[in-house]
Amino acid sequence: MDTERLMDGLSREVMVALQGMQKAKTIEEKMAYSEIVKNLCDSLKVFLDLASDMMGYDANDFDE
Predict the structure, then answer these.
(1) Which residues touch 7 (CB under 8 Å, ≥6 apart)?
(2) How far is CA 2 from the centre of its chain?
(3) Mind giving me the DSSP string for 1-64?
């Protein structure tokens, strides 16, 4: 699975959900979009945390 492609897709979905939330008329709709944005951002955070953790490792560490 290509993590870069996955992260790009999640980012696009966050933007779509934010645009939907902007157009929502009722509080219930806004709350639903808010939950969607939160869940997508939490998912994206997993990959960003992993990338951050991996920056401390040298590529040669994985050859062994």
Answers:
(1) 44, 47, 48
(2) 14
(3) --HHHHHHHHHHHHHHHHHHHHH--SHHHHHHHHHHHHHHHHHHHHHHHHHHHHTTS-GGGGT-
How far apart are alpha carbons 52 and 34 in whole angstroms?
26
- From first to last of the 64 residues of the chain, give the pLDDT tens digit: 677 898 899 999 999 999 999 999 999 999 999 999 999 999 999 988 887 888 777 666 555 5
Q: Residue 47 corresponds to which tokens in the numbers above?
A: 């990959």
* Contact status, residue 24 vs residue 33, Cβ threshold 8 Å: yes
Tokens representing 27 are: 């509080």
